[in-house]
Every structure is written in structure tokens, then in C-alpha cells.
Amino acid sequence: MTRLLLVTLAILVINLPFGFWRAGLRKFSLAWIVAVHAPVPLVIAVRYLAGVDFRWDTAPFLIAAFFAGQFLGARFRR
Fold it and tell me: Over the Cα atoms of the chain, what is R_g?
């Protein structure tokens, strides 16, 4: 459970700068799509290195952290 919490926090932090960047771009432009999808390999690497599998019981935490990081990063820009 502690590993899942740390990975969730790491995913949120990883997505903050990408959300910040995304907020300044035209919606659905190529750069916007990159800002949304670029952190995915980093998130997968963090999960893999921490040994946290993407299962039905961990998915809500990981997905929520991804979107929360994007959202909060965008809010920081405004």
C-alpha cells in the first residue's frame, strides 16, 4: 500500500509540468497532444521500477493521479 501511495504521488508530480505546458496551448493541437501523452512512458517506468502493476484495484489511483497532475498543472498556469 505504501508503494502504491508513493507511485500515485510520483505520477501526480510528473504530470504537473506537462499540465502547466498544456494549459498554454491550443486545444487538440499537436503540441497539446504531446503534452498529454509525453508523461505516459515516464509513468510506466515509475510503476515498473516500483513494482506496482496496473490492475483493477490500482488503476483508479494511478489514473486519478495522472489527471489530477494535469489539472493542477493547468491551474498553476492560470
Answer: 13
